[in-house]
Write a structure and sequence with these properties.
This protein is an alpha+beta fold. The protein is 42% helix and 11% strand. The protein is built from six helices and four strands, in the order E-H-H-H-H-E-E-E-H-H. The strands form two sheets. A two-stranded parallel sheet has the order 1-4. The chain has a two-stranded antiparallel sheet with strand order 2-3. Helix 2 crosses helix 4 and helix 3 packs across helix 4.
């Protein structure tokens, strides 16, 4: 079972968003189970559960883990193909975010568009690497910092931008034969608090864009 997989197909995305099927995915991510076992857990007839499982299996969201005999019946034990799923913007290709449409480093919506592109591109790279049976070279850095003031945050962003830009200038080799382009995304945003049921609250009054 993969830790996370990206859903690119619109029909697979629609299947995964059905509440009953999403519940079945959650159950099967915890371990293999038969339709009869799942029926008892979620309170639906076995035939209904089988119908939903077949839909999930057709789109590669669940797979056969094994079979077992129970009386005169052979039960299929199914499992989720991943512990968690992310829906790629490719599932809504005609309306997917395009970060190149506008560029505003202080815009939260532009940050969201960048994040969507990251999900789309890395998902496609994972799919290609899996088919080719090759490893995918990636790197991610995740951290958290508390700024004492908005001025400190602005200074941090300025130094971060200068540092990353200097590294790009140092290592960028556009004419290198056999080289490969890599995209760099660096983001800074307020931490989402678990108690923020209605979404994150701004830590200070919004500052005007320069």
């Amino acid at each position: 079972m993969l830790d996370v997989t990206v859903i690119e197909d619109p029909e697979a995305a629609a299947v995964s968003l059905d509440p009953v099927r999403a519940g079945l995915l959650a159950e099967l991510a915890a371990g293999p189970a038969s339709a009869a076992m799942l029926a008892g857990r979620i309170g639906l007839p076995r035939q209904k559960v089988n119908y939903h499982l077949k839909a999930l299996e057709r789109h590669g969201l669940v797979e056969l883990a094994g079979e077992r005999r129970k009386g005169n019946v052979t039960e299929r034990l199914m499992r989720a193909t991943a512990a968690s799923y992310v829906i790629s913007p490719l599932a809504l290709a005609s309306v997917q975010p395009d970060p190149d449409r506008f560029r505003d480093q202080l815009s939260a919506r532009w940050l969201l568009a960048l994040g969507a592109r990251l999900v789309r591109d890395v998902g496609s790279l994972i799919t290609g690497a899996t088919k080719a049976r090759k490893r995918l070279a990636t790197f991610a850095l995740d951290g958290e910092v508390r700024f004492a003031s908005a001025a400190d945050r602005a200074a941090f962003v300025e130094e971060l931008a200068a540092g990353v830009s200097a590294l790009i200038r140092k290592y960028d080799a556009p004419g290198a034969e056999g080289g490969r382009d890599h995209r760099i995304v660096v983001a800074v945003h307020p931490t989402l608090k678990p108690t923020d049921a209605e979404g994150p609250r701004p830590v200070s009054a919004p500052e005007p864009n320069p």
